[in-house]
Amino acid sequence: MALLTAAQIAAALDAFAFTIPLKEINGYVVQDVSRRLYPSIDVANVTGQENLVDVPTTNTKQIYKVILYYRIVGFGNLDEPDIKTLENEIFEVIDGLQDTSTKITISESWKREPSVEGTTHVKSTLTVQTDEISSTSGDGIRGDQITITFPNSIGTFDVIDVITDQIGIIKDLDLENEGDRIFTKISRDDLLIVSIAVDIDTENQIAGLVAAGTDVVIFLARGGSSDARTVNFTSIVASGTRGEIETQIVSMDVIG
Questions:
Q1: pLDDT tens digits, 18-43
Q2: Is the pTM higher than 0.70?
Q3: Could you give the CA distance from residue 213 to residue 236 in angstroms, rounded to a whole number?
Q4: Residue 54: how many CB atoms within 10 A of its CB?
Q5: What are the start and end residues of each CATH 2.30.110.20 domain in the chain?
Q6: DSSP 22
């Protein structure tokens, strides 16, 4: 997905069935106060496109304001619980626009303030930043495009971190009578360690593979390319602190 535009955000909001019907959603211009309909939404691009180029990442970003207008006057108009419902639904729509090429950062809270001083016309403003992360060279792979598929229908999971993806060789040395060193054994020493977030049932299934100690096939996908590997699961270690999502460190010896 290319960078989102204000019109695209407005179109996504317009397609959503809000619990409380909106009178108008604008993605091009901010309406004049005299023409304002209530409740309604304006989506405005408040910055031009910003390009941050580094090695190895290029970040193209823009910032939007999503403004919900409403009024609390007379019979049938919105009260606070209704306003909160609309705010939550708008947040849900915008959060759902993320994909593997565009990261969307939404401010943690709405900013409520009068839209017209001295009246009960109110607006809630949500700040939205879009970041399109890409490889500067064109060859790199985004970290959130890496997945791992476990056997026995356990499933496919996003990789939080590839801690180790090591290909190595062990060389055992012996000394001949003359003191010369010779290689008596050369063997592979490949290791794959990943961090993932899974539920208890999946954690137990992976623990079962560790206990079985048998060789199985997993698939590590980077971007659009999938790499099949025969591995032997050696450990799964859970780590989580209060207020954080628990993650599991899964270690595998790569057989081939």
A1: 998 898 898 866 666 677 788 899 99
A2: no
A3: 13
A4: 8
A5: 143-254
A6: -
